[in-house]
Design brief:
The structure is a single chain. By secondary structure, the protein is of the alpha/beta class. It is built from eleven helices and ten strands. The termini are far apart.
Length: about 325
């Protein structure tokens, strides 16, 4: 091949390679150009859904494109995760994961997705406190007194939860393992029936999600002993942490954070994180979340990725030690 022909061929190939790389570069540079989709794997009105709506609205306003909160509920969060894992990695699809998705790998052996390899972390969004409450008839007023009473009366106490393998169940099992108590687990189909039986005295203890506990704390039927957050909760002022009340290192709370399909351009992930952090730090958004029972927890993608890995390992140990199985 003569040199002029060779040069023309190489120039043509170079132009072709450059053209092939343009779509991805242009996509990141011009993003977003059309609506951005956020999958929520639970029904409307729950804490993860509320967090998604409060957080994404100001993000959409900043981007000047619509944001779509797409509720894909089912199978305890699995249906939404499956859909999100198959979504395009083009910067227009995201997924609000929850504590359920850190627990599921230890409960289900046949998941069609991997929460750690099929997604990349974008950032933590919010935490939802879990409150240790007891029926008014129980003669304990502190966490230490509950531990002593449970040890003096092994097998007598029971705690209700929103269901086997959920956050409020695992919070109780973690408490048992860290304190050497044997408070028996009673699963319910949701937090509401569990709280009703606590109010009626059918169960004596509950590690309740914040929204379920708050309306009843001033009624006198239940008594709060501590919160599962590592630090005092702004939602429950005056209630000490369980960790500072005789169970050092205890942490149990629900949470939600944002993931993107693996392969989403890093520049877009960085931009979405920055805009989500800005939204969560906005006073109006923060107040709206607090009123809904959520505490904003903005952070970096790296922090959320490390947190997710730690949650998977932590709850996996609790599930194994307690012999928890989901049929």
């Amino acid at each position: 091949m003569h040199d002029p022909q060779r040069r023309r061929l190489m120039a043509g190939l170079g132009a072709a390679w450059a053209a092939a790389s343009l779509p991805l570069q242009a996509r990141a540079a011009k993003w977003p150009e059309h609506p951005v989709n956020f999958i929520v794997p639970f029904p409307p009105g729950g804490p993860v859904d509320t967090t998604a709506r409060f957080t994404t609205q100001p993000m959409g306003e900043a981007w000047k494109v619509p944001v779509v909160v797409d509720n894909k509920a089912g199978a305890g969060g699995i249906v939404g995760a499956q859909a999100a894992a198959k979504a395009g990695a083009d910067g227009y699809h995201y997924f609000f994961a929850s504590i359920h998705h850190a627990v599921l790998p230890s409960l289900r052996a046949n998941l069609s997705y991997d929460i750690t390899t099929d997604f990349v972390p974008v950032g933590m969004a919010a935490v939802f406190p879990i409150v240790l409450v007891v029926h008014e008839s129980l003669p304990v007023k502190t966490v230490e007194e509950l531990i002593a009473y449970a040890k003096q009366h092994p097998g007598k106490l029971s705690f209700g939860s929103s269901g086997t393998g959920g956050g409020t169940h695992l919070a109780g099992e973690l408490f048992n393992s860290m304190t050497g108590t044997r408070i028996q687990h009673v699963p319910y189909r949701g937090s509401a029936p569990a709280m009703q039986d606590l109010l009626g005295g059918q169960v004596q203890v509950m590690f309740a999600d914040g929204p379920s506990a708050r309306p009843h704390l001033e009624g006198g039927k239940i008594r709060p002993l501590g919160v599962g957050n590592p630090e005092p909760s702004a939602l429950f002022p005056g209630i000490p942490t369980i960790a500072a009340s005789g169970v050092p290192g205890y942490e149990a709370y629900s949470w939600s954070g944002l993931l993107a399909p693996a392969g989403t351009p890093a520049a877009i992930v960085k931009q979405v994180n920055a805009d989500m952090v800005r939204a969560l730090r906005d006073p109006a958004t923060a107040q709206g979340l607090l009123k809904a029972g959520a505490e904003p927890k903005p952070g970096t993608p790296e922090e959320f990725g490390a947190f997710l890995q730690a949650e998977i390992a932590k709850w996996g140990k609790v599930i194994k030690a307690a012999g928890i199985k989901v049929e």
